[in-house]
Amino acid sequence: MTLIEPTADRDRTALAPDLHALPDRAARAWTERMAVSPREGSTYAVTTESGHTYLVDVKRRSCSCPDNRIRGERCKHLRRVAIEITARRVAPPGKQRATCDACGTVTFVAEDAPTPHLCERCRLTPGDVARDRETGDRLVVVRVTDERASERVVEATGETVAAYDTNDGYPADDFVVEAAYLSDAVRADDPRRYAFPRSRLERTDERLVDTVDG
Ligand SMILES: [Zn+2]
Ligand SMILES: [Zn+2]
């Protein structure tokens, strides 16, 4: 017999709100059929069940509907935009919806973010410490490029990064990440860099702390 520990009360949570316990405007924000689409800046167009379209500005907390404009209420359109942003169905202000170029999940990136677009989990930034999945070595990320492993030629061998023996099995269209061995990086100002396919490097929670003064 397998004993399953009962879950503590505080660990149990409802996913949807209790609509009966919500004020009317909040309940309608959850249940009515509305379409939300991002517009300029912090504004969103909300089209309602009855076919009206109102403009919501989340930063100014304003809506063009009579409920907000005349009665000054936090209307169901404002609430709905907030719900959709929280649920990650629409992008927060200043961000755009994008597909992670490494793993394909939906993510939100800055509107002027350069490619590749990477989700939180796949993102590597210079200074991040990563683990080489093949050797277990720890490396420091120096640069994330937008070149593909099948395009980037390694000078020493004349082969592409994708064709390299130990990179067998990693996608040929992976982005190339330049990284230095941690042991070199802590000793040298300009450590030798090596090119890796992105998915060969596993992110860790560590970052190289810059100890150079000034
Ligand atoms: Zn409104
Ligand atoms: Zn990803």
Q: Round the Cα radius of gyration to an integer and report it.
A: 24 Å
Order of secondary-structure elements: HEEEEHHEEEEEHEE
Largest sheet report:
5 strands, antiparallel
Q: Outline the low-pLDDT stretches.
A: none
- What would the average pLDDT be, to the nearest integer? 88
* Structural class by secondary-structure content: alpha+beta
Strand order, main sheet: write it out.
Answer: 10-9-8-7-11
Number of strands: 11
What general outline do the C-alpha atoms trace?
Answer: elongated
Helical segment count: 4
Percent range of helical residues: 10-25%
In whole angstroms, the N-to-C terminal distance is 63 Å
Tell me the fraction of residues in β-strands, as a range.
Answer: 25-35%
What compounds are bound to the protein?
zinc ion
Protein name: SWIM zinc finger family protein
GO molecular function: zinc ion binding
Keywords: Metal-binding, Zinc, Zinc-finger
InterPro entries: Znf_SWIM
